[in-house]
């Protein structure tokens, strides 16, 4: 059955969104609640008037839910309240109406003000209510947006501990695979989100086969157990459905033109098209205007300079942004052809959009882009300048560039299929017996619980400044603490390690590789000097041990009995510093937060190597140590 569009009609100056049920029913045996995380959508629309990229995908998946009233009973929408560090439940009916309004009309000033209020913690504008912990058990959470914009991984990990299943949709690993296209801060933010999400996700999807294979490779690279990542095909935006049959495409953009629909950023390779158009114009080729459709992004200083100095090639290049789907549809339908020379993509939505609108497209052959266009597009390497120049010349001189491609050669995917695949194959196994995919640490190697990825040299440098038992004989590697941290009892991560929060039990999960013999797990810790009148309790697999540090820096040595039959041992450590309210207020006044125990590093040693480590630690006695031996 063909999907039916949402209709918009005007009543007393306001847009009334009328739901028309459509789409094929999903085959799904799940009877619990499915929560869709909308946090990044709220964040994005608080800052931008029109959605793009990932947010358009999120909106379209939510629209599919809106179209199928039969799904409403089992679906809820949540967002992360940063100010209170917990999820809120958004009113379903109002939220879905709002989503469809955004798809059709965009975001006006009044609506953007609402998104800004919610993003700042006032969720009453969307009838948001705190979500009780008992609601998680037996539910599913779908993280389908740009989750790295908010630090809600600990809250998701805690929801998982309380019985929720985490289903993660990954778009691409471009910030890690092609870091030259991003700032260092963006790369670090993305990686510090992705690693723990992959550790706690019960099911991982990706938006293409290329992205799926890339995620599976990355999981192996960071030492997590292998997983099967399921590729799903994103649907195609039916832009033609928003345009009346009696409307002419030339009403919006007049003349002969080619289009490139994309955020204007370095990795999209706009600079290549500037050079192609510039050279061909000098050679006297009769070219269509080139229209860049998208907002300005980052790392485009050279492109901006060239456009400014050439007066946008004397008008041969035009830039449009913040277009509605209605306007975008008219541009596609009126274009002579589309171009898409991007260096790397997780999918390539503009390629499928162009094909769906009957617009022939020349696209990059890199990464997942050929999956987005199949046999219906022409592909050229993004670094083949001469190839692009020849193709643009040939297509410009043709009366109808559709002669060069077969637009019917690719079966365009539907959004109903995308949603069906998510719902039907999401994780819903029995709750008992689950455990996260834990980060592995090796025997004889020490790990810094660091905030951001470091090179080995940087890690050694950090360790030499902060660790009490760092020697040239113990290799140093950076370790992302977030992947093994559970719950909201950890403070902000720093370059040297990670703080627990006072009066909260902070869990640390690790997987020790090569632990077929008895071994010891050593934590190098610190506390603030103002922490007087406090108590520290460390638990290993439920057995409590009270710690009395001799100094502000100390080490914990926990003995574990390994097994001859397994290669890995999963461990759960709980660390809790308790102190009175006066001490807590004093620490907060000095440091701005409730610091507990600072965990600098992890070191796993064979029991037979413990005397050597103890001797080394004693030699560095400027900072005392407290040793604990846990029961077997």
TrEMBL record:
Residue ranges annotated for the Glycosyl transferase family domain, each copy included: 257-402
Gene3D superfamilies: Glycogen Phosphorylase B
InterPro entries per UniProt: Glyco_trans_1
UniProt-listed SUPFAM superfamilies: UDP-Glycosyltransferase/glycogen phosphorylase (SSF53756)
Domain of life: Bacteria
Protein name: Glycosyltransferase family 4 protein
Source organism (scientific name): Brevundimonas fontaquae
